[in-house]
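Illustration 12: P-type Zn(2+) transporter.
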Amino acid sequence: MTAAERQTRFRVEGMDCASCAAKIDKAVRRIPDVADVSVSVVAGTMTVKHGDTVDLEALARKVGSLGYKAAPIAPTTAKGASIVEAEHSDHGSGCSHDHGAHDPKHDHDHDHGKNAQLGADETAPEKKPDALEGMHGHDHGPQDGPWWNTSKARLTIVCFVALAVAFGIGQLYPQTQPWGFIVAMAVGLIPIARRALSGAMNGSPFSIETLMTVAAVGAVIIDAAEEAAVVVVLFLIGELLEGIATGRARASIRALATLMPRTALLERDGTTETVPADSLTVDSVVLVRPGDRVPADGIVESGESAVDEAPVTGESVPKRKEVGDKVFAGTVNQEGVLRVRVTAAAADNTISRIIALVEEAQESKAPTERFIDRFSKYYTPGVMVVAALIAVLPPLLGGADWNTWIYRGLAVLLIGCPCALVISTPAAIAAALSAGARRGLLMKGGAVLENLGKVNRVAFDKTGTLTEGKPKVTDIVGVARDEKEVLRLAAALEGGSSHPLAVAILARAAADNVPVGSATDAGAVGGKGVVGKVDGLELFLASPRAAAEKVTLDDTLSARIAALNDEGKTVSVLLASDEVIGLIAMRDEPREDAKEGIAALAKLGADTVMLTGDNARTAKAIAASLGMEARAELMPQDKQRIVGEMRASGKFVAKVGDGINDAPALAAADIGIAMGSGTDVALETADAAVLHGRVKDVANMVALSRATMRNITQNITISLGLKAVFLVTTVLGVTGLWPAILADTGATVLVTANAMRLLAWRGIREA
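Figure caption equivalent — predicted structure in token form:
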């Protein structure tokens, strides 16, 4: 077995930024027989591809020597196997970074975050990583429980109290100054300086902690101990406020996991027993009582009820569920008892898949975020050089006062902290991905989210995308009998059939409360229709061509059939003996929100086109009713070619389909969007997925992307704008250390709070 054929995944604690990941990556790659290393800051994990000779304990110790803590979270596995996180709950401590205390009572009890490919026999308890953990250079460890109970909050409070005591003692005993303020500053600065030293020793000398340490120590040297202490307290408060704000984004994803009930009523051998919900296997049958949450994705075996799907889909009106209907894990049964056959294990249900995909998506950086990461590598050392020049050149060249210009140089150092700039993009991306997931909009990463806003041409599949994917009775025409009688006789003839047209007729009869009898001597006539006896009448429900072979269809009737066909409808003729008693027309109707969704895209400046393999007459009829262009009778390769032609003409194209027969076109588009219930094929093929089948949600994706890009622009403007203003005022001597740190902390909090606004995004407003 080669080095690349085995891999182990580690949980890495204390990793807070891209430079942390770079240090770990560089160190681990030097270990013999290690083929590749992939470090994820957001997930707090490291995946190592290696050979059999690697000592995993030694590898973990190497990471530990850098100031982090690493522990394997899954056994090694052969290449191609699914690497699944199964973290032990006992993380331990000892990391040099200042992380919040771990509280086991907040661990999730459900196996909700596993890879969708995980088999039911591989489940293990786990605690998912915080989706926003380590977004930049600050110390953002796990923050379970109330904010005031974290180590970060305790440090901030102790430092603030020490500052207040130093101020009080200084008023009573002036001779104690500046030592009281130096002690107060040291309380908060020592943990910051420790992290700065660790970073510098391991190749990251230009961290936020380094800037803060230099500025605070420099302030003490020039006899500004009081300001140094205040600067440290304000820095800690800024970190704390930012942690609280970003915690809201974590909570939005964790809230999805809490939708899952812990137990389920499993039917077994004619009795029911309470079992853990995450132990349910495919084809298990569970009983869901009124008021219970559905414990797994499944299909209703028996019963009828209204199910509140708002927690998963955002729909405010409960949906009626009958035998054969799908139900989603986490939704709430409201009325009757339902027997549900499980179709997906816990690791594969709708909620688990949403959580896993959102967490994976947050690993994929947007182009803007990658640019800012590269920019900050040069920006931070550049600021330190500028600050040093401001502190040194005026006294050296112009004979200015050293203390004054060193003070101004230190203030510039604080102003230059890249904190707000670095967090501006990932905070907005994470919040937007979370907000989208709450509405069933899944996007595979920041790049997809950012690019969706550029879409100006959307190509839709027809069947199952723009339409429901099943025919409905649209017209009943009475000829020798009235409409109700035509429907009654046709439904009796089709009773018990599972043919889509038969199902449509029976559904219409049920909706119109038409009593359905039974037919005798019923049977199918190959390629022509069905026959049978109802109330003594010899009935034949046939295609117009088959009916014309038995009776003469007059001009009026033929014209009516042609008109219905022109509307893309399939027409059946009901004969009683040799008499036409009525017509029934059916069509795969557009989804309820299809017209609204197409109109919403038009408002956003995106043209739409239907690409379908269906016949031209049906396609044009459906497209005309929706106000869009249609191209019909296409093979998969034709759809792919057309998408390529649209891109070549300068359009930024999104292709929306079911992710299976549209795979070539989905891959050819700038953005591929899978429509439907989130099948594995759809989610793997496409860049994004609309889990709940709403056409309007395609427009919502574009709108969310544009809202996110506006938010990122605002964040960058806030962070750089404040720095520019205070840089000028500091060099001119108008502002000093206090306003400088307030500007940095204030910009960070403003940027984070602005990004968190995206969590409240609810989609395009109703007209």
